[in-house]
Design goal:
By secondary structure, this protein is of the alpha+beta class. It has 3 domains: 172 residues, Rossmann fold, CATH 3.40.50; 145 residues, D-amino Acid Aminotransferase, Chain A, domain 1 (2-Layer Sandwich); 71 residues, Dna Ligase, domain 1 (2-Layer Sandwich). Helices cover 32% and strands 21% of the residues. It contains 14 helices and 16 strands. Helix 4 links the parallel strand 1 and strand 2. The longest helix is centred in the last third of the chain and has 17 residues. Bound molecules: adenosine-5'-diphosphate (ADP) and magnesium ion (MG). The site of adenosine-5'-diphosphate (ADP) has 16 residues, from strand 9 and strand 16.
Length: 411
């Protein structure tokens, strides 16, 4: 229980330090959270929330370790909260070393928590006091949280659900809101939004759960017709997953069923895409005080030892992206412009990584956006920003500041 004691709200700095020379209640107007050092007598408290129920649990833990190490402790207080694979919010140790990859095995939240109870964020915009509860024990207040850094990938983290909870709780958070998160998670609606804003997307068709369950034979025919028009191979993907989980490159009709079954293990809705031939170009967008700006782009070279840029290539072997991408000045300007357009099209906030294919024809086609992209110091998003002049610590700080600036609610 040692680290619980340090979170005891009776000892939290805001209470200890309130005296005649300080405002009695700095949070009297709780709808406004300012830049703490100027407006408030204590540092803003950042809850780094990580782990989660998605298949990207381990990646999230590894990333949170980097974020925890990079947060400026002179400027912010930190409360790490891990979400277990079952969905319990656990109080975890502020100990990045326990959150590393060991023997090519991804870490879990379970290995960094010493507490059985659950952490709760009250659904009460007037109360930001986080509470720890454990069976048979008196609930313990852990102090107020001013901003959440949801370092989560995939469903229940990056898809708008957590963002909805934070909206109800009235706690500002880093990154995209409810709508943008949901759009960024759903490869079908993402394409629909981009198309409606004039961004080019590749050919695709969607297998809806009811259609597959009612008449899988008709669906197979549809997909075969789609292949007749666009050619094999096809990419069969869960509509709402990430990190290449459940994606299969299918070379012909005989591989289709297995690919659909695999995708449906992750999501009952499946998207089928034509192969795009070209170079993979990515671009980071970051929200500054005066609005979003794009980083220099990167190129992801074709990975020869993996079927495509899959999970292992991305996270464990940390595939070597080329930063900046060797493009012409015009192409670089074009992809940076398109990346900001994609950010605006989906109403993103804070950050986004926009991924494109540069087709042989010279056209940029958008593949997807990631509202919480890979975020370890060697991940593409931080690397692109470093090359643009923003290092990892600054990046973390700018994201927290953007979240504190905007608060919750309609904006
Ligand atoms: N239509 C496509 N044509 C060619 N390569 C693709 C296509 N779709 C996906 N890929 C390859 O698979 C990788 C993962 O697909 P992506 O749609 O980005 O899924 P995820 O959300 O899991 O990152 C891409 O980075 C790319 O290398
Ligand atoms: Mg991707």
């Amino acid at each position: 229980m040692s680290n619980l004691a340090s979170h005891d709200s009776s000892q939290s700095p805001d209470r200890r330090e309130s005296g005649p020379d300080r405002p009695a209640d700095p949070y009297a107007d709780r709808r406004v959270v300012g830049h703490a050092s100027e407006n408030y007598p204590r540092k803003p408290r950042v809850a780094v929330v990580f782990g989660g129920r998605s298949s990207e649990h381990g990646v999230s833990v590894v990333t949170a370790a980097s974020v925890l190490s990079a947060i400026d402790r002179d400027k912010y207080d930190v409360l790490p909260i891990g979400i277990t694979t079952e969905g319990r919010w656990a109080l975890t140790a502020d100990d990045p070393e326990r959150m590393a990859i060991a023997d090519r095995r991804m870490p879990t939240v379970e290995q960094v928590t010493d507490h059985e109870g659950a952490v709760m964020l009250p659904v009460d915009p007037a109360n930001r006091e986080v509470v720890y509860t454990e069976a048979g024990a008196v609930p313990k207040a852990l102090g107020e949280v001013d901003v959440v850094f949801p370092m989560l990938h995939g469903p229940y983290g990056e898809d708008g659900t957590l963002q909805g909870l934070l909206e109800l709780s009235g706690v500002p958070y880093v990154g995209a809101g409810v709508l943008a998160s949901a759009v960024g998670m759903d490869k079908e609606y993402m394409k629909r939004v981009f198309t409606s804003f004039g961004l080019a997307v590749g050919p695709y068709t969607v297998i809806r759960p009811r259609a597959w369950e009612r008449d899988s034979e008709a669906v197979r025919r549809e997909v075969t017709d789609f292949a007749a028009e666009h050619g094999w191979p096809l990419f069969v993907k869960p509509a709402r997953a990430g990190s290449s989980f459940g994606i299969t490159k299918v070379d012909g009709p005989e591989g289709l069923d297995a690919a659909i079954t695999e995708a449906r293990r992750h999501d009952p809705k499946v998207i089928v895409e034509a192969l795009l031939r070209g170079r993979e170009i990515e671009c980071g967008v970051l929200e500054f005080e005066d609005g979003p700006r794009a980083s220099v782009p990167a190129e992801i070279p074709p990975v020869t030892s993996h079927a495509f840029y899959d999970f292992e290539a991305k996270y464990i072997d940390s595939a070597e992206g080329i930063v900046p991408a060797p493009l012409t000045e015009e192409q670089t300007a074009e992809v940076r412009r398109l990346a900001v357009e994609a950010f605006e099209a989906a109403s993103c906030e804070g950050l986004v990584r926009a991924d494109f294919f540069l087709l042989d024809s010279g056209e940029f086609v958008i593949n997807e956006i990631n509202t919480m992209p890979g975020f370890t110091p060697i991940s593409m998003y931080p690397r692109m920003w470093r090359e643009t002049g923003v290092d990892y610590r600054q990046l973390v700080d700018l994201l927290i500041q953007a979240a504190l600036r905007r608060s919750t609610g309609l904006r």
